[in-house]
Amino acid sequence: MAGKSEPLTPRAKLAVTAGRAAAAVSRAAGKGSGSVIGGKVALRLDPDLLARLARHLDVVLVSATNGKTTTTRLLAEALRAGGPVVSNALGANMPAGITSALAGGSDARFGVIEVDEKYLAGVARDVAPKAIALLNLSRDQLDRAAETRMLAEKWREGLAGSEAVIIANADDPLVTWAASSSPTVVWVAAGQAWKDDAWSCPSCGGVLQRPGDDWYCGECGFRRPTPTWALSGDHVVDPYGVAWPIHLQLPGRANKSNAAVSAAAAATFGIDPKVALERMHKVQAVAGRYDVVRFQGRDLRLLLAKNPAGWLETFSLIDAPPTPVILSVNARGADGTDTSWLWDVDYTRLSGHPILVIGDRKLDLAVRLEVADQQFTVCADLDEAVRTAPPGRIEAIANYTAFQDLRRRVGN
Question: Rounded to the nearest 5°, which phi and psi values hold at 280?
Answer without folding.
Answer: -65, -25
